[in-house]
Amino acid sequence: MQEATVRRKKPLGQAIADNWQLYVLLLIPVVLTFVYKYIPMYGIQIAFRDYKAQRGIWGSKWVGFEWFERFFTAPTCARMIKNTILLSFYSLLWSFPIPIILSLAINQLRFPRYKRVVQTVLYAPHFISTMVICGMIRIFLSPTGGLVNLLFGTSIDFMTESTAFRTIYIASGIWQDAGWGCIIYLATLANVDTSLYEAAKVDGASVFQRIRNIDLPALLPMAILNLIMAAGSLMNVGFEKVWLLQTDLNKATSDVIAVYVYQQGIENAKYSYSTAVGLFNTAVNLILLFVVNKIASKASDVEFV
Question: Nearest Cα to 137, choosing from 164, 107, 102, 106?
């Protein structure tokens, strides 16, 4: 019987020397991440100080949780938290399944040229800037000559209706990003073994049976991963769109934490206060990320983070 040869593990220094080109390429994103993501965390401490620019961070007075207490006792605090959670939750609820449905539908197309045209049309809105999107929304919903009012024969100013803001925000978000979001699911479906489809056809499986038993199980791990990532940013409502669509008459539903942080930090120069509010928002996102990850890992027996 021939003795099995034992392969000795190379020392770390030798492994780095043999593959130094790969480590140099890896060093670039590591350095950029450290410089732009970790070093700025040094400034988080101004959330616990009465920050004065002329005194600097260390020279400013330490006030502990004073700014957090001021935020939680503000008259609009409950409304902002509620609006942020509801707007994010409804966006996730309605927009999350749409890319999956689109990818399943596109995957059933059998004419390559038509399939490419459909994909291009669906991807195009993603490349339109948020400012242009908001301008288009205001034009379409204008009470004088807007497309929606012309179709329904009305003259409603939807931008001043607080009850319509969430619908406008979510519907425009689906139109803009659903096509782009289905790319990753289409790539997953492209890796499915075609012999599974052929065997299912031989067994007499219908289109919906093939989708239910082949496509959906293949998409499940990626869908869970995307759900975890989306839940980790649940409190991060798109600031630009809310800011551009917000009016004094729809603030009952459009007043969110992201806009409040901008107003307090940039417009009113309350740097410590706005940092405290933003830190609270980030902490909630972090908690949600771990909670959803635990729930998803128990459902799929796979932990992604």
Answer: 164
Residue 107 backbone zone (phi > 0: left; psi -120 to 50: alpha; other: beta): alpha
**H or E stretch including 143?**
none
Q: Which of 115, 84, 125 is nearest to 256 (CA)?
A: 84
Q: Which amino acid type is present at position 266?
A: I
- CA distances in angstroms from 159 to 83, 202, 203, listed in the order given: 17, 54, 54
Give the pLDDT confidence of 193-217 residue by residue, as tens digits: 888 888 988 888 888 999 999 999 9
Residues 137, 275: Cα–Cα separation, whole Å: 32
Residue with tokens 């609820």: 93
SS3 content of the chain, % helix, strand, coil (to 5): 75, 0, 25
Report if residue 27 sits inside a domain: no
Residue 13 has pLDDT above 80, yes or no: no
d(CA 41, CA 81): 24
The residues facing 50 across adjacent strands are: 61
- Which tokens hold the place of 269? 């120069």
CATH code, domain with 287 = 1.10.3720.10
The span from the first CA to the last CA of the chain, in angstroms, equals 45
Number of domains in the chain: 1
Give CA–CA dist 289/293, Å, rounded: 6
Contact at 8 Å (CB) between 288 and 232? yes
Query: What backbone phi and psi angles, to 5 degrees, belong to 76?
Result: -100, 5
| Residue 235 placed within a domain | yes
Q: Going along 36-136, which residue ranges are E strands? A: 49-52, 60-62
